[in-house]
Amino acid sequence: MPDTLLATTSSLLTRERGLVWHPYSALRAQTLYAVRAAEGVRLRLADAEGAEHEVIDAMSSWWSTIHGYRHPVLDDAVREQTERFSHVMFGGLTHEPAVELAERLVAMTPESMRHVFFADSGSVSVEVALKLAVQVQAAQDRPERRRFIALRGGYHGDTAGAMSVCDPVDGMHAAFAGHVAEQVFLPRPPAARLVGGELRALDEVAVAQWCVEAERAIADHAHEVAGVIVEPILQGAGGMHIWAPDCLRHLRELTTAHGILLIHDEIATGFGRTGRMWAGEWAGVEPDILCVGKALTGGYLTLAAMLCSSAVADALEGSDTAALLHGPTFMANPLACAVASASLDLVRTHALDQVHQVGAALSSALASPSHVTSGLPRSVRDLRTLGAVGVIELDPPVDVTAVTRAAVRRGVWVRPFRNLVYTMPPYTSTPEDVAMIGAALLDAVAEVHG
User: Fold this and answer.
1) Catalytic residue at 427?
2) CATH of the domain at 364
């Protein structure tokens, strides 16, 4: 590394230390890399020791940069909108990028989704979904229905309402008990795996038992519950858990029978990530309310959306307020909407084919770890894939710093958590890129936890 670049990197990391918090990190306990450039699926990093690293971003910048960095179509969309106007308030005004994006979302989401509310982030879209469910129940003369049912192992965001429906014991927000609303939780649904292109439960008896427990819990709490919220089929930050479609089908039947709204949080799973455009498709289920985000803008700008059915919207419209009581300052930001529309065009024409290619490469890379010279480490409990998602589950907690450094030395950026080393690569990753990711992750695990 040139002396000037080393000095710049060292200065940057020194200036930041104790100044800026990073996600789920102590203020002064950082092991950071400085990003020098990003293009395609690769990042150019520099570390505090002066070393440069070109790495494949195996995380898609937390699952959002599905088309890679500096994509010419997305660059053009932002540039062209900037030349018109970058932002206007959405109260009392509208604009072409917002309407165009809403039309695209309605066209590509499940048939029942007909109405759109734009939010700043995925967490905020969950907040809006919860508030909408409470308002709709009140509009139907059931104001006592204000609680929610969620799943153990679930994660729905970091704001107060979203935290309340995350796993209350093993989740990242257990420290906030008493601060957030107390909700009702079902057990984590039994696991499923891909067999011949279909998701099948590993234990059908366990599925039947889970369905009985869900039926009992919903019957017991239906009088006070506005909605059930789930990450359909794949729980993300709660453990990268792939769960049985029969459980989701049963939840749909139960919520319909009891007049409870079913909310799908597809912020992480939507836009093809699991191998279907929407994870709910694995169960043939459509929700009453749908939350989307992360990949919506291709990772360019923060934007999310909540969609709902006409039945839900009509119930709200018939209430005393008629209004959905939420309104972010940057709601439907034109720049974000413009790049999101461009991103969705790429998703519609390319995403599923790309995901199937990435998924096949991931399955091969993680199912045949013969390149690990010492064999598969004993610490590995499970290897699993679904669509463009690959997971290495360990028995001990991951040494995040050590595994990250080991992967970076092998040319891959990864951010493990808890006992999971996982990848959600950009859809534009080549089979060679994915093979490199798989080898790097397995070798890093073998080095650190072998």
Assistant:
1) no
2) 3.90.1150.10
Q: Is the model's pTM score more than 0.90?
A: yes
Same domain membership, residue 266 and residue 162:
yes
At residue 25, what is the residue type? S
Question: For the residues 196-202, what does the mean pLDDT come to?
Answer: 94
Q: Which helix (H) or strand (E) holds 148?
A: strand 147-151
Last residue of a domain, one of 299, 332, 365: 332
In a domain, 160, yes or no: yes
395 in active site: no
- Residue 102 burial (C-beta neighbours within 10 Å; 0-12, 13-18, 19+): buried
Q: Encoding tokens for residue 52?
A: 């440069």
153 and 167 Cβ atoms separated by less than 8 Å: yes
Question: pLDDT for 204-233, tens place per residue?
Answer: 999 999 999 999 999 999 999 999 999 999
Active-site residue identified among 294, 300, 422, 433: 294
Tell me the per-residue pLDDT of 384-420, one tens digit each, with 9 for 90 and over: 999 999 999 999 899 999 999 999 999 999 999 999 9
Active site residue 155: yes
CATH number, domain containing residue 133: 3.40.640.10
Q: Is 62 annotated as a binding residue?
A: yes
